[in-house]
Structure prediction request, 236 residues.
Amino acid sequence: MLRFMFVGDSMTIGSAGEHTWRFRMWQHLRGTLGPEGVAVVGPRTALHDKATGEPVSHDHHPATSPDFPRNHLAGWGEGWLHMAPQIAGALTRDPADVLLVSLGLIDLGFYTNAEQTADNVRAFVTAARSANPHVRMVLLPVIANIRAESDAPFAAEVTRFNELLAKAAADLDTPRSPLLLTSRPPSYDIHVDTYDGTHPNASGEHRLAAAFADALSQAWDIGGPYDRASLLTPTG
Prediction:
């Protein structure tokens, strides 16, 4: 059995009433690896509650399978800056074989520049390996949100960070603890695949899951290609 931990910001934790891309990815992994071949672990289980502004909701979309394991390490407004100090403890408490990481947008938007954020990526990787020297990590590039359309300096920081992220992934990849950078989600359009220019709607959730699924399949032969029909006709 492979144990996966989702690590991310608001796009990953999701809000009350959503499926989340975590659910879409779990469906894919369960379908390709079998119910006994995958586990989802992590110290948190809640969704973000927009009414309170806190991660206290457990109300997923009504169509979300009750079997879906809600565990994760994701937080609204949290980035590499916040997760680097937490990942070792999370992995010690909830051992995982593979980390699926989507971070960086919030860092660049509010906390750190591209270079500082890249430093926190490296700190995260070091901390994760201190808890599990064999952990595998799959990293998603930052998807520029609607702010980038009117804020050229922010857009430039996103571009610069993605360059540094690619370099970090190449520098830090080892046979003992492989590190993989995904491609940008297929055909992702913030005006179609989000509900507010940042956070994924149903089609966006499928596209984020597809980016991770295809990277796992192509690089490490884990699972298989994402169901392309889900991208064309997202449900819920």
In short: The beta strands are 2-8, 38-40, 47-49, 54-57, 73-74, 98-102, 136-139, 179-181.
